[in-house]
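ARCHIVE RECORD
Type: protein–small molecule complex
Small molecule: iron/sulfur cluster
Source of inputs: curated submission
Record status: active
Notes field left blank by submitter.
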Amino acid sequence: MKVDIEESSGFCFGVKNAVTIAEDVLRDGETVYCLGEIVHNDIEVARLTSLGLKAITYEEFATLRDNKVLIRAHGEPSSTYEKARENNITIIDATCPIVRSMQEKIRKVAELSRDEKGQIVIYGKEGHAEVIGLMSAAGPGGILVTGKGDLRRIDYSRPVYLFSQTTKSKVQYDVVAEIIRLNMEKVSPDHSSSNLKVHNTICRQVSEREPRLREFASKHDVIVFVSGRNSSNGRMLFEVCLKVNPRSYFISSPDELKRKWFNDSASAGICGATSTPGWLIQEVADIVAAI
Ligand code: SF4
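STRUCTURE (tokenized, with ligand):
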């Protein structure tokens, strides 16, 4: 059986950057706290924990004084930075530059659109760390849209500035934008196009993977998708594979592999999310090749 790894699979630039920053700081041998898990992948988290990185909750963060705390690629709301200043905590900021620049953009648009009563609408997953940071940048008037049901929260007679969480599906984002445009057209036909500004904030590291994965999944008999179960990007990219290849399997660890998946197959494709370490994808590929 031929076994291929999808080339673009593995850590995106933002996660790679955060992990490199963590490894650099941990080289000094001191314990570094990380607000939340540095990456949605248990096996990689365990590796970094063994080097001295300790994931903490917001409640634990609030009790720390004079420590070092790493902020992961997803970024943080402004309240985290304020709390760090109050408690003399040194922030090691590994926020992905793409996320940081989106936070800045949202802040600026919220400020500039205040007089015209503009609404900042964020399409994303409720409770996701990146979304919490983006909503903080949007301010108290920000509207979170997790699906079509939330669109009723928008006042279609007022301007809308739409942003997406970086790891959402481009196809679904386009659908949400189109529904908003149609609703605005009903309310004010003359201003619908000028009243809606759709910001293209889906990260190319994710959006470019969708078509690549579609092609990759269609070319192999069996697909093994490696990702942490709590990675929203992993779930979304796995669905892309499953749609074109029903013999797609989601695993988070090599011991979940099943020999029977590969019966009567001439080729297997191994791929993963933006939070899946390259070494883990390689390990899975080696085991599949041995099967
Ligand atoms: S998916 Fe894109 S925006 Fe998100 S952390 Fe990775 S590089 Fe940054």
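CURATOR ANNOTATION: The domain at 98-165+168-201 is CATH 3.40.1010.20 (Cobalt-precorrin-4 Transmethylase; domain 1).
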